[in-house]
Amino acid sequence: MSALNSFSVPHTPPAPGFWDEVQAVTVVGGGPVGLATALGLSRRGIPTVLVEARDTVSVGSRAICTSRHSLEILDRLGVGGRVQERSLVWDRGKSFYRDQQVLEFVMPNDEKFVRPPMVNISQADIEQYLYEALFAEPDATVLTSCEVTDVHERPADAPANGSDRVVDLVLATPDGERTLTTSWVAAADGARSAVRRSLGLRLDGTSYEGRYVIADIKWVNDWPTERFVWFDPESNRGSTIIMHEQPDDIWRIDYQLRDEDDAEHEQRPEVIRDRITQHLDWLGETDAQWEMVWSSLYSARALALDEFRHGNVLFVGDAAHLVPIFGVRGMNSGLEDAATAAWQLAAVASGAADAALLDAYAAERRYAWEQNISNATLSTLFMTPGTFGYKASREAVLPLIGLRPALRHLVDPRQSSATHARGSRINWATPGTGAGLHPGDPVADTHLPELGSTLYEATGPGFTVLGTPGTAELARRTADAFAGQFPAEGATALALSAADRQLLGIEGEHVVVVRPEGLVAAVLGPEETTDPAGIAAGVAAGHTGSEPVGERRTRTPDPEAETVETVWRGISEGLDAADGDEARLAFLSKAVLLLAINHPDPAAIREALDLAAQQR
Length: 616
Hints:
By secondary structure, the chain is of the alpha/beta class. Helices cover about 35% and strands about 25% of the residues.
């Protein structure tokens, strides 16, 4: 395993008088999400305290897939180059039913994008890079080996840091119990959040029954860096196996446990070793030399808080929401939380914005979770079916995928991509304006050939104001307005040629304002009557008053895919609702007859029935 897993962060007592002061912002949790939040705040000049119960980075690789948007977030934190340099790039994957390939997917990797769609790197590596960057920030204080035991919010003795209230965090430290008083808290302390528990809050949603053993092995081989999935392989019948490569010849192998498998027994090292050996032997790697370096047990959960803001406490990452691993949305969605929380908390704590701006964070990121769950739920139901109906229907689908390509929609892992914030209360659009990009859409870092640069290189952090030659003056005024309203961010105006504008997806003569984390904040028409200062003030106030623009959707509509999914889920749930084998057979017969009545081609119905009869 990488030496980065042993990186330690020893406890260092804070400076004298620290415990008697009111801190501006305290981030609880030293995983990648908490570290990214703390670094984003401190780089904006906000005095920030990081509190972490451990004294090392994560053990084991844990999250390994980092998306393009996450790489952009890490780049703006100053560590993106180190992450990408160490990572393994990948953009495709294959799925198999037994030994037959049923799917090959390729993620969008157009040459216009600055970064690859996905890289593999251990979470521990990312944590070390973020820790090292945080240590270099003069406005950051890091407290490790400190565990939150209680949380109380109360009126402040005097208003400070944009708030007339404070939060008392009771900590168990190596030096005894201490109380840390802070104006704001970003709770990033994971799925078992002590902050959430102390406030009496709970995550609600769905916990799936399927269980996976997750193992990292060191194995030198010639396999390509792709995502491999086997459904019902000979090495683990009735199960699913996933394989991924990481740096240093570390391979992640996930395999599903069957209902009858005892979880405690299956986590024994010798049992895991036997399971992996069986699979490698089946793949023809009978002489494989490998060693196991880490393992864990996982079950899929789709849970979230109803509200991501509670008073002066903002929840980010797994403390706010959990998503299934399929599609690798966990750490990636958490880093999106961190990027939005950092600039908005900084604006509030510095007095540049009203605390109502944090309500926009809470609503946007709750909706982002809904987007992730909309994409992850189908993958989870197919990858880890927990009921008779879903198991039976998956067994029916798998042999047919090679014959009916439309069914591949059910196998598609729908890899993580940047979520949008359409419908946010801080979006703005000039009435009647259509620029191709909508407020709330993500904007990827893009090569701009005529500018001779990339978008990020040309603008740097903060707000970015994109205009055309015909809107140069409005773009300049807009940049001045946002820079004046958000001095910790600043704003850069950029005049785009027609060709570069097209690469970014901007149509016509418009000004597009991009937020610090890469989401469109505003789309302005060329009218001279537009009031950029009023728009910037509306963002800072937490509500611009603009009507929502663009479709507020959790997934891109695809009629054929929606039909396949609707039928598959309907059959699965109908089988689960039926009482006994006879009732299930009757349900299936009625379903076939009713679906066939609506089909215009009797010959196609006969062909489908014959095909189904042959797949036994």
